[in-house]
Design brief:
It is a single chain. The chain is an alpha+beta fold. It has a domain at 6-56. It is 28% helix and 18% strand. It has one helix and three strands; from the N terminus they run βββα. The protein has one helix spanning 33-53; strands spanning 6-10, 15-19, 27-30. Strand 1 and strand 2 form a beta hairpin. The longest helix has 21 residues, at 33-53. The chain starts with 5 loop residues before the first strand and ends in a 23-residue tail after the last helix.
């Protein structure tokens, strides 16, 4: 399964925060975008392992429609 990551800069933390929308509460910090994503991937692997060990179903990955899903219209 392929899960998504969201990445944003945090002035408060002075670095990047990566989250996984499918797993609420999963977040990771990094001084660079690559570091934050790498840390989030480790956290995701542990989260998946925990879900499987406890018999919980994994959430469905977020599906993005790609460029065709956007109308290219801007709201005024």
């Amino acid at each position: 399964m392929k899960f998504s990551f969201a990445l944003h800069w945090s002035d408060e933390d002075g670095g990047y925060i990566a989250t996984c929308p499918e797993f609420l509460g999963l977040s990771a910090f990094g001084e660079s975008p690559d570091e934050a994503i790498a840390e989030a991937q480790v956290a995701l692997e542990l989260m998946i392992e925990t879900y499987r060990e406890s018999g919980q179903s994994l959430p469905e990955p977020v599906k993005f429609g790609g460029a065709a899903a956007y109308s290219q219209k801007l709201a005024a």
